[in-house]
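hey so i finally got around to running the thing on that chain from the lab meeting. sorry it took forever, my laptop kept dying and i had to restart like 3 times. anyway pasting the input first so we r on the same page abt which one it is
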Amino acid sequence: MTSRPLAGPATAKDAEQMRALFEQRIRSHSGPSFDVLGCTVGAVREQQGRSWFQYTLRLRDAGSGRERDLRLNGLVGASDQSRQAAQNPSLGQPGPAPGDEPLPLPAFSYLSELDMVVQVFPHDLRLPALAPLLKGAFPDVEPFLLARFGPGDWTVDEWRGELVQYRIEMQATVRLTLRVSDAATDRTAERRFYAKVYHWRRHAKQQALLLQELAKRTGGAFAIGRPIGFSGRAGMQIQEEVAGTSLLDLLRSDGDATGALRRVARAVAALHRLDLKPLGQQWRRDRIAGLETVQESMRARRPDLAAEIDETARAVVDGLADGVSAPVHGDLKPEHILLDGDHVGFIDWDLCALADPLSDAANLLFKLRREGGRLAGRPDR
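ok and heres what got predicted. didnt touch it at all, straight out
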């Protein structure tokens, strides 16, 4: 049974109150080893009765005087499973990786005063693969990556994981840079890859299947990050890097914007002409299953609105079969379009679907128009 919170959301947003609260918890866990000099409240996100908070603590080692930052994620309204894992070290507290500094707090803990699950970044109860990826300690991935270097007895000399995108408990994108060597031939090489980690394992599998089908059908009209590995256990898929400069950077530089936009338009049109009908029925089933999950959650939270929720869900399901249907990117914006000479590449396919292709055009034109306001006065724009 969850204890009743002693403080409200205002406390979670108050930097000084949270500093004092975290300092108390750190000292109860680590003794007087650290002083908490300050606390910064970062991004706050609220959705469906849950609230996510990001904190950065400035710590000072009481012995050496050295200062460092500690990033924490707090979740109010977590599931019972997450609360239990945070309160019980035997349910998933990770051990330190080689070379890690000791944590002044457990990787996962629970603040009953706020009904808040606290996670020391990059540890995430729903994205357990994230921390090992960033720290280079994920054996499931290494064989996929080494195979991309070609024949040889390759070993990893350096593994660098950089966080590109992160939504607490939902998904993350990690840029992986591997430097490898083959002792028998004295060869060395370096390549970059991207790992996408999802809480919903089914979504990770869908994305891997989608990219495989796209890779078969592009015909060179555009490039994608080809899938090279998938781990259902970790909810993760690995992609090759897409070469090029983002359209956003090109627009903000002195490059040929007109020629670039024409190449992009041809590539987008080629995407919309692809035949992905074999995936259509599976896509529809997956989206209905996802909708049913949301519907069930909303009914549990608002039983008084059950009839309206069911009616809305039925309308959405009926609408899935209506209208023009073609493969669309779903999140087409200048940051997701890369240009490498005459070649165009697209990245971040998480919202890809079978839908009206006008949605891609409208989304991209809106983003270009907004960017155009920043480029006003440039004659080539």
